[in-house]
Specification:
By secondary structure, the chain is an alpha/beta fold. It has one domain: Rossmann fold (3-Layer(aba) Sandwich), CATH 3.40.50.150. Helix content is 29%, strand content 28%. The strands form four sheets. A seven-stranded mixed beta sheet has the order 7-6-5-8-9-14-12, with helices on both faces. Strands 1-4-13 form a three-stranded mixed beta sheet, with no helix packed on it. The longest helix has 16 residues. The radius of gyration is 18 Å and the shape is globular. The model has no long low-confidence stretch (mean pLDDT 95). It binds S-adenosylmethionine (SAM).
Length: 257
């Protein structure tokens, strides 16, 4: 391709990207970001290590890829971005399944499409893998990984402990997990250290659980994680200003069950 044709196709890709409806706000070029529903850009530096040079990293439930691209920007040697390629594999609550499948079909929503668009524009080397958290095993990510991010995914899983156990199985010894998950501020006010979660599956489209912070800690411990450190509590900027509060907790593998 000639230089001008290349520049033309880059400009076309950028124009196409800016016309889409995004979940994530992602910087694509200086001063140009995707018009995302959620903007985590100010939060990332507060919760991620500044330097991941040489590390093998994994973002589980990547969606448009925000966390995966942030891991790459911090120098990770290889970044995997796992998500589903089929809506059939989601844990949608049974009463919602048929309706949500119809809505997805009507919206012509193709999993990974926006990730690939951002990937191309950024010249990224992140490797997207079509893999459920429940199917993670070292063979899917080229052996053990050093750093894993799970963002806003555990609440959508019917069995979050099973998902976390699979994440445990792909972390190398000494590896770290960061969860950045919505939590219930109300249930976190309970004075004693009681692990609680609100069951939301009958009243929302996709959410199973809204735990309190202690509850999230218990989910991690049940799956063999320990040395928990709270990194931040924040409410990400969203288009409608209605996003939930999130907590970022870092943990290490302390047991393999
Ligand atoms: C609310 S979005 C969160 C996106 C991103 N991780 C973040 O923190 O902003 C949830 C993502 O998890 C994905 N997901 C749902 N079930 C999954 C599963 N079983 N395994 C892997 N990803 C899943 C969805 O497809 C979607 O991309």
């Amino acid at each position: 391709m000639t230089g001008s044709a290349e520049t033309g196709s880059e400009a076309a890709a950028l124009a196409e990207a800016l016309g889409r409806d995004w979940y994530h706000t992602i910087d694509l070029a200086p001063g140009t970001a995707t018009p995302g529903y959620v903007d985590l850009r100010a939060n990332a530096p507060k919760v991620l290590p500044a330097d991941l040079s040489g590390k093998r990293a994994l973002d589980v439930g990547t969606f448009d890829g925000f966390w995966a691209f942030e891991l790459e920007r911090r120098g990770a040697a290889h970044v995997y971005a796992a998500d589903l390629d089929s809506h059939d594999e989601t844990d949608w609550p049974p009463p919602n399944r048929a309706r949500l499948a119809r809505e997805m079909e009507a919206a012509n929503a193709v999993p990974g499409e926006r990730f690939h668009l951002a990937h191309r524009i950024l010249g990224s080397r992140v490797e997207r893998i079509a893999c459920s958290i429940y199917d993670l095993e070292p063979g899917r990510v080229g052996g053990g990984v050093d750093y894993v991010v799970i963002g806003a995914l555990l609440l959508h899983l019917r069995d979050p402990v099973k998902g976390l156990e699979r994440v445990n199985s792909v972390l190398a010894d000494g590896g770290r997990l960061l969860i950045v998950e919505p939590f219930s501020p109300f249930l976190s006010l309970i004075p004693r250290r009681v692990a609680l979660a609100r069951l939301r599956a009958l009243e929302t489209n996709y959410t199973w659980w809204l735990p309190n912070i202690v509850g999230l800690g218990h989910l991690l411990r049940l799956a063999g994680f320990g040395e928990l450190q709270r990194r931040a509590i924040f409410r990400p900027r969203t288009r409608d200003g209605r996003g939930p509060w999130h907590v970022a907790i870092e943990a290490r593998v302390t047991a393999r069950y």
